[in-house]
Design a protein that fits this description.
Helices cover 46% and strands 17% of the residues. The N and C termini lie far apart (122 Å). It is elongated.
Length: 400
């Protein structure tokens, strides 16, 4: 069997068509097409003994086999060219990605630099003062936003003017519980975590009610203590001791019915009923709920004061307020003010929660170490601020 190559039509001679097809399949697989079949004779010896053969005409549809070195080199070049282009594309994509990342970093740096540049020195200094007084970041951001909105660039050069305005804004954020004359009996309930001095504080309130009446030459008010503190050892004894010194009887209540009976018994004969409660962790939801139910007495209408110490962190104070909200309190009493000089954390949270301040305590002595809260008292204790005392006294008169 022999074959010849024609770029268009090729021929192959064999004993039979089947034999030729088998040979073509070996060479080209299925990528050929037969175009013609012709009989053929091969010459014999001296013109004799000729053999009958078959000649097949075919074309190759697609060549998958490289038969020459030239073809191989051509295929190799095409492959390398293709791979090269792909590699170039990959490199270009990587370079583009790197450029985008670098550009993003540069933009961030420019923004940071821009912010630093735009943040006037006066604003930076005010921020430092506020943070040093432990105001929360949200409170500080609110103040700086007000500065930008209120002061043109040229007025920011006047630090004293900006500082005075910031102090006024802090004062405006502080709500003070007003003095309100209640229908008798005036019921006051102190709630709050353990260890904040509720028993001592409620005794101070009672003592000051008596002293205020004496100063005014008024009738000494009739006062009654109720303790529902069942957690702290000696709490009842401590309250009874204060009660004996001031001539105030003490009743103990363990159930809602107890509170109801005591209230019904004295509601028409006393001026004040002061209720001391158990101190629980702000995470003790169950007992806080039970204590709230204990005070669910018709007609009681108490003024409820959340009591906490001044050194509480903002996050802890937020948790305390949240878990005592079921008592529907509007006012707070800040104790242990003698143990800290910074009130920013407390003032920030109370402003955010819209709670007013009734009293502050700054020691253990009864009745001396308690006073009604005033805006001026907080402002004059701001650290680092140059406080214009005449201005804040005029701006925030204590009798308001």
């Amino acid at each position: 069997m022999n074959s010849s190559f024609d770029p268009t039509v090729q021929t192959i001679v064999g004993k039979s068509v089947d034999e030729i097809k088998a040979e073509l399949f070996k060479i080209h697989g299925e990528n050929y097409e037969i175009r013609g079949i012709q009989p053929s004779l091969t010459p014999g010896f001296m013109g004799f003994f000729q053999k009958s053969r078959v000649k097949v005409l075919y074309i190759v549809k697609q060549r998958n086999v490289v038969n020459t070195k030239e073809d191989f080199n051509t295929s190799k070049d095409e492959i390398l060219k293709k791979v090269g282009l792909e590699n170039i594309a990959v490199k270009q994509n990587a370079q583009m990605l790197n450029m985008m990342q670098e550009l993003s970093c540069q933009i961030s740096e420019l923004k940071s630099a821009s912010n630093t540049t735009e943040k006037h020195l006066t604003i930076q200094k005010i921020e430092e003062l506020l943070l040093n007084n432990e105001f929360t970041h949200s409170f500080v951001n609110n103040i700086t936003s007000k500065i930008r909105a209120s002061f043109p660039l040229e007025e920011l050069e006047d630090f004293d003017k900006v500082q005075t305005q910031v102090v006024d804004w802090i004062g405006d954020s502080i709500k003070i519980t007003p003095k309100i004359i209640r229908k008798l009996p005036h019921v006051i309930v102190l709630i709050g975590p353990t260890g904040v001095g509720k028993t001592t504080t409620i005794s101070k309130i009672a003592a000051n009610l008596i002293l205020e009446a004496k100063r005014k030459n008024a009738t000494i008010p009739s006062i009654r203590f109720i303790t529902i503190d069942r957690t702290r050892v000696g709490a009842e004894e401590q309250l009874r001791k204060f009660g004996e010194l001031m001539g105030i009887p003490v009743d103990k209540a363990e159930t809602t019915e107890d509170v109801k009976q005591i209230f019904e018994q004295y509601k028409n004969s006393v001026d004040y009923i002061l209720i001391d409660t158990s101190g629980y962790s702000p995470y003790d939801y169950e007992n806080i709920g039970k204590m709230r139910a204990l005070l669910d007495v018709p007609g009681l209408r108490p003024d409820v004061y959340l009591t906490f110490s001044a050194e509480k962190k903002a996050r802890d104070l937020e948790k305390i307020i949240l878990n005592y909200e079921s008592f529907n309190f509007d006012s707070v009493i800040i104790t242990k003010c003698d143990e800290t000089t910074c009130y920013g954390n407390v003032l920030s949270v109370l402003a955010e929660k819209n709670k007013s301040i009734a009293y502050i305590t700054d020691g253990q002595k009864v009745p001396r170490d308690i006073k009604r809260a005033t805006v001026v008292n907080f402002l004059k204790n701001l650290e680092g601020f140059d406080i214009n005392r005449f201005h804040i006294d005029e701006r925030f008169p204590e009798d308001n």
